[in-house]
Specification:
Blueprint lengths: L2 E2 L18 E4 L10 H11 L3 E4 L5 E4 L5 E5 L7 E2 L2 E9 L10 E6 L4 H13 L11 H8 L4 E2 L7 E3 L5 E7 L14 E7 L9 E5 L5 H12 L4 E3 L11 E4 L2
Length: about 250
């Protein structure tokens, strides 16, 4: 049965350590999700009027008012991993409300800064035709370099790094599990990740299938690279000495 989304459903974790100290944190790409990636996104979708229901796989699926966009919280029952991290959110769009298959999919693991996922979804919802691509890949790299990221010396047309070389964004082959409506082989898609230190485990990862419009990926990239601090009560492991913290009052 279709029902209005309930952001306080027990499937979703509550805010961790609500009585603990809060900090304004930069850089955003290393700030983590504060343990509230589910809460923040479900709250956003609820405010936007998305409907939701539980699937046969015990995941939680959300559908936009236009019925063109979907977002699924798949962390509770998901074996799909990116960078050895479980995928938490899968977002999709289709060209028409009666289309059986999604045109593209985007995947975000646990730990992805929820602000960037939210800004991606806001950009998706703002499009009346979220399945169509109007821009080239330079829209993504331009969004990053405008906020201080640098193009890779060897791959300047496809890859950019944050100033501390702890996060990357690249346009290239995607994992075989990534689903896209375009069946042609060897298509390129965007991938992003954070690695707090060389050789350290990935903090989070995101992958966009080849047909995801570049301007939508650019919205995620611009949010990720934003210098604006984000509020956190829980800091990711392995970021000691990499974050700038200001106590929130």
């Amino acid at each position: 049965m279709e029902a209005l989304l309930n952001p306080h459903h027990p499937r979703y974790p509550s805010t961790p350590n609500p009585a603990g100290p809060a900090y304004w944190v930069t850089p955003r790409h290393l700030a983590g999700d504060d343990g509230i990636l589910a809460d923040r996104i479900t709250g956003l979708l609820a405010e936007a009027g998305w409907t939701s229901w539980t699937t046969a796989r015990s995941t939680w699926l959300f559908l936009s008012p236009s019925r063109l966009c979907g977002a699924e919280w798949i962390l509770p029952d998901n074996l799909f991993r990116l960078g050895d991290l479980p995928v938490a959110w899968q977002v999709s769009a289709r060209p028409a409300a009666d289309s059986a298959l999604a045109e593209w999919n985007a995947y975000f693991t646990a730990g992805t800064p929820h602000e960037a996922v939210a800004d991606f979804l806001l950009a998706v919802e703002a499009r009346t035709d979220p399945a169509l691509n109007y821009d080239g890949p330079d829209a993504v790299l331009g969004a990053l370099t405008a906020l201080g990221w640098a193009r890779d010396v060897d791959r300047p047309e496809t890859t950019a790094w944050d100033p501390g070389l702890s996060a990357g964004f690249t346009w290239g082959p995607t994992p075989a599990e990534i689903q896209d409506a375009d069946p042609r082989p060897d298509l390129l898609g965007w991938q992003a990740w954070a690695e707090p230190a060389l050789g350290a485990p990935y903090q989070w990862a995101a992958t966009f299938s080849p047909s995801v419009p570049h301007d939508l990926v650019a919205a995620f990239a611009a949010s990720l690279a934003s210098p604006a601090p984000v509020l956190r009560r829980s800091l990711p492991e392995g970021t000691e000495g990499r974050l700038i913290l200001t106590r929130a009052h």
